[in-house]
Amino acid sequence: MHRFFFLLNVLIMSLSFSQKRITLNQDWQFSEINSQKWYKTDIPTSVQHSLIQHKILPPPYKGTNEEKIQWVEDKDWIFIKDFEIQADDLKFPNILLQLTGLDTFADVFLNEHKILHAQNMFVPHNISVKKYLKAGKNTLKIKFYSPIKYNKTKRLAAGFEYPADNDHRTEKVSVYSRKAPYHFGWDWGIRIVQMGIWRPVYLQFLNEAYITDYFVEQKEVSEEKAVIQNHLQINSDKDFKANIVLNIRENGKTISSIKRSFDIVKGSNSFLLPIDLNQPKLWQPNGWGKQNLYDFSIEIKNKNKTISSKIHKIGIRKIELVREKEPKGESFYFKVNGYPIFAKGANYIPGETLTAQQDSAYYERLFKNTVAANMNMLRVWGGGIYENDYFYELADRYGILIWQDFMFACTPYPSNSAFLDNVEEEAISNIKRLRNYACVALWCGNNEVEESIKYWGFEKRVPADAYQNFFHSYDQIFKTLLPDLVKKYAPETPYIHGSPLIANWGDLPLGLMGIRTTGAFGMAVSHLKF
């Protein structure tokens, strides 16, 4: 896995001209806080994963070893890395520390300066750190706090126990944690409440202006023409006139390009570059045609010098979710490029409880096997994780449509303002990260949350006012907040509030999804693991 991220980093550097990025993934140390015993590790990892590697913990999948590893979740832990910075590196106008995944409750210190408090496993962080860096040795420390202890006060303040039955502990704190639900246990897997640096860490050296976001919105798509709007976000330290250059390439050959001059001002800038692509080669799902991908490359130039750039592989396609009233229910099927498709696939759960063990070879095997089974869709289940970029890159490459759940499953959730703010940040981050992938066919609010509230007997287990508030919270999160964010940040992507869409998946006349379908939807019930 570490080799994969190294190769990815080399690719990024090769595309970013005068920008520079270094990895901080190797040669870390970690320890239980207030312990004198330190262990070496590389990242991505979790405390449990690294302790297993050091044989401090037994293999968790063997016998009854699950019981022997539970003590880790009640402790606080610290990760430390020393790294060198050259004096010339400090000449870059902007330096960002990129923490792409912290699991979950953590404080981050750079040279003893606190620079971040993190509280969401699914939110990456880009922190301006130039003023804290120095030539020579620098030290990065990340303290991780036990999710059990961190959420104790919230649990007690609620005055009742949330019916999160997949949380395999008496004190159920999983609903308060924006962290992979399955870490707390599930009906298909063991409980390992992980903590650690679960995705890579980079130091990014940037010029006086740099691209913070690039979205390729496909407004209209047909075999004759694709109407595309390129949305660009730029952060700048100063006012200046820049040229912005867009090149669209197919197999390395430029097939279309535009160049525009813009006045960039100090602070945040937003620009729109419309372009039409005539007779585009459309991206098709597996079994329906080729997975054509174009390279969309955007550059900012200041006096003919490229100071920032981004590149995305884009599949031109149109995906529709067709829901029409019928005499005995409602249709539910997908059209891709105007044609109804039979969605043949599976419900995908994380392939490893220890997330760090999912390396590039695992993902490649997953998608090769998916194609070999003649599937064309995977549903990323809401009790797991938003997968890493390589997962979606492979889905684009192999023509596998992705039904993407938000990470909520099988229990009601709070809806206080702090929780909603945390969910909003998580949703925006992941919608924006995934919206350029051709494979993303649908955003779904959750897995079986409304189902659980209505039909699993929760009204007998919590106070009446708490039970009624479950419905209010559901509407706030899944029928207001999340659909509004999808509409704003990925307007071309359909959204449904939950699965099953009409609660009570056991009602056979209504079918697997809780609706009567026209027969164009065939998602398999079984979990898919490789």
UniProtKB/TrEMBL annotation:
GO terms of molecular function: beta-mannosidase activity
Organism: Ornithobacterium rhinotracheale
Domain Glycoside hydrolase family 2 immunoglobulin-like beta-sandwich residue range list: 209-317
The organism's taxonomic lineage, starting at the top: Bacteria, Pseudomonadati, Bacteroidota, Flavobacteriia, Flavobacteriales
Reactions catalysed according to its record: Hydrolysis of terminal, non-reducing beta-D-mannose residues in beta-D-mannosides
InterPro entries: Beta-gal/glucu_dom_sf (IPR036156), Beta-mannosidase-like_N2 (IPR054593), Beta-mannosidase_GH2 (IPR050887), Galactose-bd-like_sf (IPR008979), GH (IPR017853), Ig-like_fold (IPR013783), Ig-like_GH2 (IPR006102)
Superkingdom assignment: Bacteria
Enzyme Commission number(s) of this protein: 3.2.1.25
Principal EC category: hydrolase
Assigned keywords, A-Z: Glycoprotein, Glycosidase, Hydrolase, Lysosome, Signal
GO cellular component, one term: lysosome
Pfam families, alphabetized: Glyco_hydro_2 (PF00703), Glyco_hydro_2_N2 (PF22666)
Protein name, per record: beta-mannosidase
One GO process term, biological-process aspect: glycoprotein catabolic process
Family affiliation: Belongs to the glycosyl hydrolase 2 family.
